[in-house]
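Hey all, quick one. A colleague (J.T.) asked me to put the adenosine-5'-triphosphate job into the tracker so the inputs and the structure tokens live in one place instead of scattered across chat threads. No bug as far as I know, just bookkeeping. Sequence used:
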Amino acid sequence: MSELWTAEAMVAAMEGRPFGQLPKTVSGISIDTRTLNRGEAFFAIKGESFDGHDFATAAVAAGAALLVVAEGRLPGLGRLTCPMIVVKDVLVALERLAEASRRRSKAKIIAVTGSAGKTTTKEALRHALSGSGTVHAAERSFNNHWGVPLTLARMPEDTDFGVFEIGMNHAGEIRPLVKLVRPHVAIVTIVAAAHLGHFHSLDDIARAKAEIFEGLEPDGHALINRDDARWRILRKAAKDAGVKHIHGFGEHARATYRLVQAVLKPDHSSITARIGGTEIVARIGAPGRHMVQNALAVLGAVHLVGADVAKAATALGAFRAEKGRGARHVLAHPDGAITLIDESYNANPASMKTAIALLAGTQTGQDGRRIAVLGDMLELGVHSAKLHAGLAEPILEAGLDRVYLAGEAMAALRDALAQHVAVDYRPTREALQPVLLAEIGGGDAVMVKSSLRLGFAGLIDALLEKYPPQQASTAADEG
Ligand SMILES: Nc1ncnc2c1ncn2[C@@H]1O[C@H](COP(=O)(O)OP(=O)(O)OP(=O)(O)O)[C@@H](O)[C@H]1O
Ligand SMILES: [Mg+2]
């Protein structure tokens, strides 16, 4: 069993009180008893709907090596036989351990924020850096007030590269997280209307994203989307935060990491880019202009942390979009294969436009149609109706053949599209599903996208069940 922490180091970092006979080491850290592995430390975090202390018994049953619990909850837990570290506040203790992890680490650290593409960029970095050393990154999004400290506390001591996704819904959320992470390179992928409900304008969103520069290590690098309309705001914020090294990535002539040429194919892209003074030619295994932009950020970051750029460029050829974030399936159909693009994990105006463009560039079979299946974009506040209706323009520009819509907010798009393209609207995903299953045909290219809560992953599952996939090309294939 590999050791992550000694109990002694944990007690010291968290200023905790040992209770019972602590083991010498723990093999990992868990906050969820359903995924806890034997030998791990269980942190009883209090979330929005659950309190980890209520699962202490389950953690012991699952083989937790020790529990980290709050002083105030100890009376109710005293009869458990498992050793514990008692602290004032469990989340604060996790943050202290995260700080200790950062202190002991010699890894080069990269942090990623932005309105879209954080997880995709993080995964592409994992891929690209793995030829240069050991990489630590969260398995999932894990970008919030518990996800970031958890990911940091889980970083093995001998990690060469750490990649951290940092997200936000409100101003002020990124600052404390990036101060834990202390990156050498901070990436802003794109600024767009996501969680706009809590902001007045995109400028305000940009300023909130720019908090990521406040946690950079001295001499650290800001790596900003040079093609983003808010580049100036971001650059100024980086300067104000005292950042000395500010770089842009994109096709802009002044970008440090500059796209020279891109050839977008239905299933991949080929790019030429200037990275650190040399021209790099790379194939990117996941299609779409947005992936090209993510790849430029990746190559820039790889260069800035001193890893092997050539190896990274090669690795990007095998990169595939993940489940819910652009993963593709080819479904068997007697009249010709159906291409299914799974974008069911999330949606905001920026990523919707990206995905619509992606569909427009996707090949269909003979007589096949390009079909968008779209659900509500949530958390857009008072701007919601306008932003939903605003998707009409990219849809018409893309020349899609059919549009299926579901969700309350999508009614605005239905009205905007009504006279211009074949639209079928249903109030819910459940109501849409049978219609979709009946109408999709051989040769079609189908892109399914929505905010997670609409349950559009269910549509993907239903299609996969009805038409067995010939080849699923997801990140999982690459192992
Ligand atoms: N650079 C980009 N620009 C615009 N859209 C993008 C970009 N990269 C990815 N996307 C789109 O955004 C979707 C979500 O990608 P991803 O999960 O990587 O974003 P995220 O920022 O991690 O989201 P979350 O805030 O939910 O964690 C993708 O499926 C794709 O449609
Ligand atoms: Mg994410």
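Adding what we noticed when we looked at it: Residues 472-479 have pLDDT under 50 and may be disordered. Residues 114, 116-120, 141, 143, 167, 189-190, 290, 293-294, 325-326, 343, 345-346, 350-351, 354-355 surround adenosine-5'-triphosphate (ligand 1) (CB under 6 Å).
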